[in-house]
Amino acid sequence: MTKDIRSPARLAENYIIDGTWDAKAIERLDETAIEELFDCLGARAAVELAASNVDEGHYYELDDETRQEAQALQSFYLSEVAKVRASKAAASEMLIDSATWLKIEPVLKDRDFLLRLFQRRLTDFASTFVQDVADLIGVSRQSLTVHLNGDPLTLAAEHRNRGKPKDEGVEDFRAALARSDVPEVLKRRWLVGETN
Amino acid sequence: VNEDQDQPDELYHPPFVREALEWAENLSPSDLLTAARINDKGGSGFIPPPAVVRLIRRARVEGNAELSTRLTAILIERLLPYVKAMFNQLHQEKNDVVQETMKRFLGDLAEMDGIDWWEITFTRKLKGAAVDAYRSMVKRPRSRTAPWLAEYEKSDDGKAARALERKATLRAFADAHFRRQRDRELFVLLIEGEIPIEAADAPTDLVRLSGLGVSTLRNKKTQYERMLKAALAETRK
């Protein structure tokens, strides 16, 4: 995903862009990492300075050479997609794995709520909620809807150990969301939405 | 730029991306492709790159490969000239740095279906990919033998001097509170001395990159060297 928050690259980025110098984290870097930090500072400063002279919103007419390069990059992207697709599990399989759901815990911030979704113990979802969660997990709306509307999952022992909801019943989505620890901004967005 | 300068700590779309997505949701595929071709940031209907990234991934997981592929082609055509122009400033016309930057982005675009930083702080991430490519592909001569340490070089192989220099430089960074990003960039570049202040024959120099005059840059360099000397004096205590 993204670089470690204390990596030399991130520390350099944070200094140049935000002006924050994390002296504590830098003190802990070894000699090689310090060299890397200087290297990253120089590279980041040069790239930012160069970028500031280029208007991002400017419309560039593509010459033939650039057009050909763009096509080559497109082929590169498509071959990457094919590679990834070959190694990825189907959405329906991903969704019956609690790990898939726990990956978005840093955003939803409520494990109990997520486990209820995973176990299909909620009903009557808001439409914006379904789209947002499909985006977060990276599955189609349709696969997510099929998962959420399936029969409640009977848990294998391994899942019981990962934590289970405080009760076993099926609950209305809005009621569960309202009393969850999901961030307010998301609650507001999902509680007002239409039902899917 | 619409993009918030602060690095958010949550992997969730910022409002300008959400609004663009909500707007795009009601478009037919052909209208969506037309809108994605709008390059003018201020133009009505412009879809910012982080939202285009989400639309590409959505279409892909929804099984709409054609729409996803066509949106990707449009995004590549929008980004490639920008990345090229950026590296031209550093006189890195060698195409491989540009290619490498683009491939880092396209690799992430292909691999991830869920939300990542490309959908939140796209420009910052793109410049990060450019930094990585630049570091890995452009070998830059390091000339960090600062004149203010000459007296120490004689004592041993310069080992102690280097360690001291490093410590003092880090201290100077911690002490230097520049409010403007531009000043922080110049601070780094002037004390690291990788890009010359003015060198008409060199591929690039700081006069051309920063648009500042030679005397302004020389004054800044003098000021920064004073800051380094002060940090060195403190470090030696």
Largest beta sheet of chain A: what is the strand line-up?
1-2
Most extensive interface between two protein chains, with residue counts: A-B, 67 and 81 residues
Shape of chain A: extended
The SSE order of chain B reads HHHHHHHHHHH
Number of strands of chain B: 0
Question: Structural class of chain B, please?
Answer: mainly alpha
Could you give the count of β-strands of chain A? 2
Instruction: Give the CA-based shape of chain B.
Output: elongated
Distance, first to last CA of chain A: 31 Å
* Poorly predicted parts of chain B: none
Helix content of chain A: 55-70%
Amount of beta strand of chain A? under 5%
Question: Largest beta sheet of chain B, briefly?
Answer: none
Alpha-beta classification of chain A: mainly alpha
Tell me the β content of chain B: under 5%
Write the layout of secondary structure elements.
The complex is a heterodimer of chains A (196) and B (237).
Chain A: H1 8-18, H2 23-27, H3 31-52, H4 64-87, H5 91-95, H6 98-102, H7 105-108, H8 111-118, E1 122-123, H9 127-137, H10 141-148, H11 157-161, E2 171-172, H12 173-178, H13 184-192
Parallel strand pairs in A: 1-2
Chain B: H1 15-25, H2 29-36, H3 49-61, H4 65-89, H5 95-111, H6 122-137, H7 150-153, H8 159-175, H9 181-192, H10 206-210, H11 214-236
Helix pairs in contact in B: 1-3, 3-4, 4-5, 5-6, 8-11, 9-11
Could you characterize what this model shows?
The complex is a heterodimer of chains A (196) and B (237). In chain A, helix 1 (8-18) packs parallel to helix 3. Chain A has 13 helices and two strands. Chain A is mostly helical and 196 residues long. Chain B has 237 residues and is an all-alpha fold. Helix content of chain B is 64%, strand content 0%. Chain B contains eleven helices and no strands. In chain B, helix 3 (49-61) packs antiparallel against helix 4 (65-89) and helix 9 (181-192) packs across helix 11. Chain B is elongated. In chain B, 38% of the residues are buried. The interface between A and B is large, with 67 and 81 residues.
